[in-house]
Structures are given as structure tokens and as C-alpha cells.
Design a protein that fits this description.
single chain; 650 residues; Rossmann fold; Immunoglobulin-like; eight-stranded mixed sheet; four-stranded antiparallel sheet
Length: 650
């Protein structure tokens, strides 16, 4: 309320007490399995098949994850999370190269960004950096089509990744390890523990230094980044006849200086050396800092009055070159280095081939993979395509257990029988192996058939259905809502050629009674999902849309009333909660989400002194009771036909 100080009309906004709730997403899937490459930590979001190929590769021989993600998008999915699993004995391809020390030691390790044989196709090329070629280097990455040979014209092709002006200084912003970690999708870098060489910073002048100097007696020198210092040579230096005499005078003049910064090693000046080498057109000066280490350096910059750097060929502009204290740690210029398969000859000192591994995936492996979804809050479907059993347990058990144990219970598992279940009897036998009886998952039978994604077979091959079904869920949710069963003659699976076994009505009835969701093929329609039951033992949660609607309500309300935490716990808060949740439920009712001819029949929201007692208030608790009448699918349509007897004739 504004202060009322003058006669007139005052206008202010007053909250209605209703805070809109958004309907939680229901069609974002998470897929778990093996992939050619890609991160093996976390759960990256993927929004297209093209992105999946870029980040995780294409179809593989020992896993169905890539195809299932492809069919998820092909059947209507919009986005998903991908959890790439790796075998315990998988290896990342790498190559280790020497540094430039004398004698050289192990220097830099370039390693594929993730394990797998895919890294053996990567080829690295190391060149001098463009900006500071003596201290920095450039790494370009290409991928060859054949892991056994590198084409002769390979380096003329455009690199997939190119990183210039990289440093071996761990404190520099362009440190090679940090740059590749941030920017490369293909490789990572490590500095070998043996790479500890260092030298005194050195500046080698360009060849062809001349004397006498006449009146050009000053130089601008920076040692160990201590600041630009003007060094004045004695007057007699102008008449020196030899470069050695100039070198001795320059050395004495620099040694007479003291550090500007307290952090600068005094030996940088006190131990400074300058020597002449070569004669005639090959004559040049070599300047060395008196210290060693990462900061050790000598640079000459032109610009002083009576500047002698031109005649002495000092400074980059005059052909001079500077190397820092750790320039010897950088790798030398190399030809193409194939990660995982480079020849072991200098500068290559070690090679580790990339390998997908052969170790079996264990129950713990899958549980750890599921746990990578813990931080993800906007996922609603989970599938492990093609992986159906781990030891004596099924992935159906592991998946539904994980979904039901999540704090918000916001996931639904899409399971499938194994590939060997090629008859209804074998499908029922697999169902007997499933011990889970909660409603957070559905089991689909049989597998579908489709084109071989690897092109090895000219006839359709068996493929797990979970990726197709996840896409169907997303398509149905978008068109009709999560309360519509993802089944029926409109629930067609795109991209399938058929089924591994055709299921008749009698077998379908037997499977349906055991809560197996059956895929059928009908003339003129194609292959469709024709089952909508969860594996729950509780009839109240028998149907997929009922469970998924409850998940949607739980997540939507949970996210939408966070504002109520720490509000005063009284009738004002209770009425706001009733209005907010009631408005949300009314919107859903109008969209056809619930049973009932009226909103009163469809749902209720109760939050008052009956649900929240004084004891609850004292404990800081407000209780909201929300009930809804779920829509249940018309699973059995019964038509009774009878004759009309005794009708009078006209």
C-alpha cells in the first residue's frame, strides 16, 4: 500500500493467489547401453540423430543403443539422454611423444576422449604454433577411413579439430591439457610425469649481426617477465670491432641491473650471460637468463633511443627467436601420429591401442549407469535396448526398481523380452523370470524385424522394440496426452518390417493376462503396440496411462508449489494451494485427462484444517490431498448382437 498523502486515486496490483502450474514433460527418454564412442560419465542430452552420430558414433555390432535412439526420433521422440556404458577392459587409444629436452624424455600423451577401438582411426599432427613457434605448438586432429594405413595426402584434408598456440605451462590460459578438455570432442592431453625438464630462458639473435655500432648503444630487454628494461652499453661499445666485445659489454650491463619485482629470481640478472657465436654472415648473439624454470625468459623489443637491436639482429622483427624455461617440454614437430597404432620410433615412445573390451556387463555396471540419471530431473522414460538379463536377474527388475526408488518416482521403464523369445510360450517363460511387480514399467513382446543397420544382411534382422516404443510414447503424448494409452491401431511403429513371431488372439490373451504388452501386425495397419498394461500386481495401477498420468501429476505439482515452502502455515496459504492446484487440475480436466462429467466428479483438492491439524502446524507441515479419477483404456470392446423378433410388417 503506498503512502496516502494527497487526495486522489491510488492504483496498485494485488495477487489473485493463483500461481500457474506447468504440465511436466512426459516424453523425454533415457537410453542406456554400448556405443562406439562418447562420454562414459554423466548423461548428455541429445536432441537429434545427427547430434547422436556426432557425439556417440553410428551403428555398432555389439549393441542396440544407436539404432534404438535413431528409431526413437524416427517414431516421434524429440529429445533424450544417453548413458554410454563401457566394458571394464575397454581401453582408450593413445600415443606418447617425447619432449625437446636433451636427452629427450616422455613428454605429452594424446589420448582419445573415450575408450573404444574408434580412437585407432584418429591421427594427430603436431606443428609449431603460429604466434610463438618456439614456445607454443599446434595440434590438428583428423580421422582416417581405414585404421591400418594413413593416406599419403592425408594432411591436405581439412582437420576435424585444430588447436593452435598451445602451451606446456600449466598456469597459462592456453595450457594444452585445459584447452583440449574444454574444446575437443575427440582427444584429451596428459603431461607425462617424466616431463620435468627446464632450461634457462634464451634469446638467439638472427644471423648476420654487425659491428661497430657507432652511436646505437641502447637495447630494450625483458628478463623473466620482470618488466621492460633499457640497457645502456658503455660509450666505447660503439667502436668495438668484434661481436664478442659487444657480448661482454651487454652481459656486464644486464648483470648490473636488479629485479623490479620481489618475486623475480635475483639470479636472472646476476647470472645473465651473453655470448657470440659464428662469424661473418653467421654471427649472432645468444642471451641467457641466469635462472631456470617456467618463468625464465629473455626477450628483446625494439624502440629505445639509439636502439642497436637492428644491427645486432636482436628481437623477433630482426630474426631473433626466444625460448622460455619450459619450451623444452613441448613436443617436436611431427608427421601424422596415429593414436593407438603409431610406429614406436622417435619421437613416439609409447602407444596404447583402443579396444572396446570383451568383459561382460554386470548388475553393478547397470546400477551405476542408472545412477548417472540421479541429477537429471526432466527425464520420464527409461530403456536399456537389447540388454535383457544380467546373471539371474532381468533388466526389467533392475529398471523398474530404479524407477520406483527415485525420490520423486518420476520414471517409467520400457522393457522387452529377450531375442530368444521367438514364440509366445518363450515370451511367457521370460515373463516368469521377471520378479518385479511394481507399476513403474511395461514389458513388450516380441522383438521387431527391420533392415540391418550395418548392411550385413539383405533380409530383415531381429531388433529390440524399446526404442520404437519410446518414440511412440512421445508421439502419443504430443498428439493426445499422457492419459491416452500408447496402444491401438493408431499406435503404429515406424521403421519396422515385421515381427519375429506373429501373435494370434489366443496367445495374445494368455500374454495379456500375464501383463505382457504385445506388439501385433494387422492387415492395412502394420505393426502396432496392442497392449497397455504395466507389470504391476496391483489392479489399481494395471494400465500404463494411469501410472504415467500419476507421475505427471506428482512431478507437476511438486515443481509448481515450491513457492509454498516457508510461507505462513494458515488458511491464506491453504486457500492459495487449493486455488493453484485446483486451477491446474481443472485445465487438465478440460483437456480430457480425467473421468467424470464435471470437475467435481473428476478430481478434488483438499487443504484445510482437516488435512492440516495444529500438531502438523507445530511440526511445520502442511498437508494437501489431491485425488483424481483416471481414464482407463477400453481394453475390451464388447458388441452384443441380437435378432429383433416379432416386428410388425408394414
Amino acid at each position: 500500500m503506498p503512502a496516502l498523502t494527497y487526495p486522489g486515486v491510488y492504483v496498485e496490483e494485488v495477487s489473485s493467489g493463483i500461481r500457474p502450474l506447468e504440465i511436466a514433460g512426459t516424453s523425454t527418454a533415457a537410453f542406456v547401453g554400448l556405443a562406439e564412442r562418447g562420454p562414459d560419465t554423466g548423461a548428455p542430452r541429445v536432441t537429434s540423430w545427427a547430434q547422436f552420430q556426432r557425439d556417440f558414433g553410428s551403428f555398432i555390432t555389439d549393441g542396440h543403443l544407436p539404432l534404438s535412439v535413431f528409431q526413437f526420433f524416427n517414431n516421434g521422440g524429440r529429445q533424450c539422454y544417453v548413458i554410454r556404458m563401457t566394458r571394464n577392459d575397454a581401453e582408450a587409444a593413445s600415443v606418447t611423444v617425447q619432449n625437446r629436452a636433451d636427452p629427450p624424455t616422455e613428454g605429452l600423451v594424446l589420448e582419445a576422449s573415450s575408450s573404444g577401438a574408434w580412437g585407432n582411426f584418429l591421427v594427430a599432427n603436431i606443428q609449431n604454433g603460429s604466434g610463438d613457434p618456439d614456445n607454443e605448438f599446434r595440434v590438428s586432429i583428423r580421422r582416417q577411413p581405414d585404421a591400418t594405413t594413413v593416406p599419403k595426402d592425408f594432411l591436405s584434408t581439412e582437420p576435424l579439430e585444430d588447436f593452435d598456440d598451445l602451451s606446456m605451462d600449466p598456469d597459462a590460459p592456453n595450457f594444452v591439457v585445459d584447452v583440449l578438455e574444454r574444446r575437443s570432442a575427440l582427444v584429451r592431453a596428459r603431461v607425462s610425469g617424466e616431463n620435468t625438464a627446464q632450461q634457462a630462458g634464451v634469446h638467439r639473435g638472427g644471423r648476420g649481426a654487425k659491428v661497430p655500432l657507432d652511436e646505437l648503444l641502447n637495447l630494450q630487454i625483458m628478463i623473466d617477465d620482470d618488466g621492460l628494461r633499457t640497457v645502456a652499453l658503455p660509450p666505447e661499445a660503439g667502436a668495438f670491432d668484434t661481436l664478442a666485445e659487444v657480448a661482454a659489454a651487454l652481459q656486464a650491463a644486464v648483470r648490473a641491473l636488479t629485479p623490479v619485482r620481489t618475486s623475480t629470481d635475483p639470479d636472472a640478472y646476476a647470472g645473465f650471460t651473453c655470448a657470440a657465436e659464428g662469424e661473418g654472415t653467421q654471427a649472432r648473439l645468444v642471451l641467457n637468463s641466469g635462472s631456470t624454470g617456467p618463468r625464465s625468459s629473455v626477450r628483446v623489443l625494439p624502440g629505445a633511443a639509439s636502439d642497436a637491436s637492428g644491427l645486432l639482429r636482436l628481437g623477433v622483427a630482426n630474426g631473433g627467436r626466444s625460448e622460455g624455461g619450459i619450451a623444452v617440454r613441448r613436443p617436436p614437430v611431427t608427421g601424422p601420429l596415429q593414436l593407438g597404432d603409431a610406429a614406436r620410433k622417435a619421437p613416439v615412445v609409447d602407444v596404447v591401442p583402443g579396444d572396446d573390451g570383451v568383459a561382460a556387463l554386470t548388475e553393478t555396471s547397470f546400477q551405476e549407469a542408472f545412477a548417472r540419471l540421479d541429477p537429471v530431473s526432466d527425464v520420464s522414460l527409461l530403456a536399456v535396448p537389447g540388454e535383457v538379463a544380467v546373471g539371474v536377474r532381468t533388466l526389467m527388475d533392475l529398471g523398474t526398481e530404479y524407477c520406483s526408488r527415485r525420490p520423486l518416482q518420476d520414471l517409467f521403464f520400457i522393457g522387452e523380452t529377450d531375442a530368444e523369445a521367438v514364440t509366445p510360450a518363450l515370451g511367457l517363460a521370460f515373463r516368469d523370470k521377471v520378479n518385479s511387480a511394481n507399476s513403474y514399467g511395461a514389458l513388450y513382446f516380441p522383438w521387431v524385424t527391420g533392415p540391418d543397420p550395418l548392411g550385413r544382411s539383405s533380409t530383415p534382422v531381429p531388433l529390440p522394440p524399446s526404442g520404437y516404443v519410446a518414440g511412440l510414447y512421445a508421439r502419443t503424448d504430443a498428439a493426445r496426452g499422457v492419459w491416452k494409452a500408447p496402444a491401438g491401431t493408431a499406435a503404429r511403429l515406424n521403421g519396422v518390417a515385421g515381427l519375429v513371431t506373429e501373435v494370434g488372439d489366443v496367445d495374445h490373451g494368455n500374454l495379456n493376462r500375464r501383463d505382457v504388452a504385445v506388439l501385433r501386425r494387422f492387415p492395412g495397419v502394420g505393426v502396432v503396440a496392442f497392449g497397455a498394461r504395466t507389470v504391476a500386481s496391483d489392479p489399481e495401477w494395471r494400465y500404463i496411462p494411469v501410472r504415467r498420468t500419476a507421475i505427471m501429476l506428482r512431478v507437476s505439482i511438486y515443481r509448481g508449489i515450491q513457492w509454498a515452502v516457508f510461507e505462513p502455515n494458515d488458511e491464506v496459504l491453504w486457500s492459495q494451494l487449493r486455488l493453484t492446484i485446483g486451477s491446474f487440475m481443472t485445465t487438465l480436466f478440460r483437456q480430457g485427462a480425467f473421468q467424470g462429467a464435471s470437475a467435481t466428479d473428476a478430481f478434488f483438492v483438499k487443504c484445510d484444517a482437516d488435512t492440516t491439524t495444529q500438531a502438523d502446524i507445530d511440526a511445520g507441515v502442511v498437508n494437501v490431498l489431491v485425488g483424481f479419477a483416471p481414464l482407463k483404456p477400453a481394453e475390451f470392446v464388447v458388441v452384443r448382437i441380437s435378432q429383433q423378433a416379432g416386428a410388425a410388417s408394414a
